[in-house]
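Appendix B, record 7
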Amino acid sequence: MRRIYMDHAATTPVDGSVLQEMLPYFREKFGNASSIHQYGQEAKAALEESREKIAQFLGAKPSELVFVSGGTEADNWAIRGVAYALKQKGNHIITSLAEHHAVIHACEALEKEGFKVTYLKPDRYGQIHPEQVEEAITKKTVLITLMHVNNELGTINPIAAIGKVARKYGIVFHTDAVQSFCKIRYSVDELNVDLMTLSAHKIYGPKGVGALYIREGTPIVPLLYGGGHERNLRAGTQNVPAIVGFARAVEIGDRVLEEEHERIRSLREQFLSGLKEQVADFRVNGHPAEHVPGILNISFAGVDAESLLISLDMKGIAVSTGSACSSGSAQPSHVLRAIGLEDEYLKCTLRFSMGRTNTEEDIQYTVSALAEIIERLRAMSPAGAG
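Structure tokens (predicted):
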């Protein structure tokens, strides 16, 4: 059976070149980067070289990049670390209803400790606007945390403009850039951010490694205590093989960014064109222009999303109903609720996320399979038939 992977927003396969770069650091160059002997210094050199490569891509200083276990840890650390560092100054945080659960749940946990959180409502495309942010600011606001690209919709937030608002009021600004990293070209200065969350496994690197960019001078306290790793900011022996792979994935992403952006944009257009020809009654959620091309969030009227997902999987096509971190939940997507999607569409929505593994033939096969399955499911459903 043919297998097609269209869930690149959940994770990506490790690039072959990334894997080859990592392998020596599991056996031949296995030293602890904190050890002072030759094995340790060999690992330390690889660690710092990797840090420099990633920092260069971001237009940051290597000293401003701290390696962590992934996006969830980076989000939690950015939010809780700044909140604790500035709790004597204020206790108010601004975020949105459409954030990743790593952000929302971290904010909810802080609310139980006495912090106040404003959850901004996105517009119907999933965007938060600078005016909303400015209106929500109080004298006690210490942190603004808003994602760069929405992981379910693909919508791009105007982070640079929001960053200017944060600067105007002297408020620390964090963005979760997991879904924009190596898909949009930018620097930390262009985005006006103080903290930025990054993850390797969304860019064809290994799972279990990410980074938090922390602008020099940003107040933050550690979440983990132990040895003096990562300049006393993040205790724990560094995962050198994964970090080396992370840096290699960034190098490749840098080289192919524009080419892949254009190729995937073309696949997106082919996908939507095919749907218009073969499938009736569907709608695309997210911003029509301000989006990354690889994420398509589509509602199919009269079709249960879980049934559609399972039917596609039986044909070898892997997609999702939303964030991988929420899979298995019986509740409709909090992102779709936040943008005000009508109830009849909430459980009729799938996310198709395209990447380097996809071809034009994949798109043709997927559209044809969708048309066949949707026709069958609608015929079986009284609501769909009506």
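Remarks on this record: The chain has two domains: 4-11+257-385, 16-252. The first strand starts at residue 4 and ends at 5.
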